[in-house]
């Protein structure tokens, strides 16, 4: 566990990987150390914001370092299915870059069993882990300024669905009608950390 | 009730934001210059977190449909109530039917208009803040919008005029290195703390995009996404830092070389496009193991100016 400084009242706690982040986040969220006010889990890090009137960087770091973290914590075992029309703008390019055919890209993506690792970027955007290693590509060198809502995309070790129109640098494989974010729903996010997900190919 | 007769570049309803939803991908948002929003609320004896209007480059005309008390803080704008000039940073008493016309600020970027009782649009996830990145929050006020006034009062206005700091042309913001300063070459922090960076025109509530000497990375592989904070200086591949403001994304995939201290965030939110900004390390003992590897430039005296970037050239 490594503690990095991120401004006046935030720590960036770096750990080994997704499972450790999940375990640490769960432990801290369920019984927060004094003064810890907000947590942002991500791929290898947990961002911890604290109230300097209550605690110090040193004592908070010590409290976090003392946590015994389970990496096999309980996750939500329900499986949700997301129907996808695989006609994304980058399908051919992903096929070329990975040395697969477009058909194989679709088959490998829809065969995956994914787990929601963490959220971020914009509300409802979920980073799903479990991507086929053959589909691992860096983000596009120049991000698009507009990606349509419902776009199903991959980048690095993750896949996701863009909840709303936004800029985006991921490779677009297809689209879904399933709303990722709806403020009239409780909770508004369709995919919460720990949830299991599969993508099901449908015809347009 | 107040009625919007004319808006400028961007007028939004803001309060102190909605912290606590970051794990869902929802940022805190809220006033970019939080100190000015708090002051505006205190001047009209509202609770500090009451919702106000945040004006970008001023330019707003409103009509009051009830008597009340209002206050303007932040970037100083000329303002007139039914044609009679009124000042910044003090309570202004208004009568039913009167019109307040706010012009453009000579310095600074964001002005706050508080109304006694607070703007009472429906809260979303516990806040009336407008998050321009995620689209969460109230509808943007436009000509003809009528905004209800609430009862978020706390006592009675007692101060006639609040002293405030002025707006300097030459802004220096204090930074704390990290969390990813070790992803950059050893010269990058020195460059950041000695050069001038110009705020570019594509800056907004998400961030101030800066233009200056590029910050060279030493580690070139992709960074896994990680949590971002307000004040972060995130460095995309072109080396030009982006200073994250109130509506920044909750996570980001480019390394953050340093973070502007909490105490200087309000000043950062008042930087206007075309203005230049400098950075210097905060006097702090918060040096991490990672930052200890790079000696920091010392905050002794103003850094040498690059003559090409001197004012007036």
Total of domains of chain A: 2
| Mean pLDDT over all positions of chain A | 91
The level of helicity of chain B is: under 10%
Q: Give the terminus-to-terminus CA distance of chain B.
A: 48 Å
**Which H/E pattern describes the elements of chain A?**
EEHEEHEHHEEEEEEEE
Query: Greatest interface and its residue counts?
Result: A-B, 47 and 45 residues
Number of helices of chain A: 4
Strand order of the largest sheet of chain A: 1-2-4-3
Radius of gyration of chain B: 20 Å
Sum up the overall morphology of chain A in one term: elongated
Task: Give the helix/strand layout.
The complex is a heterodimer of chains A (204) and B (313).
Chain A (H helix, E strand, L loop, with lengths): L1 E4 L4 E5 L3 H13 L5 E6 L3 E6 L6 H9 L13 E6 L6 H8 L3 H10 L2 E7 L1 E8 L14 E4 L3 E5 L2 E4 L4 E3 L2 E5 L20 E6 L3
Parallel strand pairs in A: 5-13
Antiparallel strand pairs in A: 1-2, 2-4, 3-4, 6-7, 6-13, 8-11, 9-10, 9-12
Helix pairs in contact in A: 3-4
Chain B lengths: L1 E6 L2 E5 L19 H10 L8 E5 L3 E5 L3 E7 L4 E3 L2 E3 L4 E4 L4 E4 L7 E6 L30 E2 L23 E7 L9 H6 L4 E3 L7 E5 L14 E2 L4 E3 L7 E3 L6 E2 L3 E5 L4 H5 L6 E6 L7 H4 L21
Parallel strand pairs in B: 12-20
Antiparallel strand pairs in B: 1-4, 1-11, 2-3, 3-10, 4-9, 5-8, 5-10, 6-7, 6-9, 12-19, 13-14, 13-20, 14-17, 15-18, 16-17, 16-19
Summarize the structure.
The complex is a heterodimer of chains A (204) and B (313). Chain A is α+β, with helices and mostly antiparallel strands and 204 residues long.
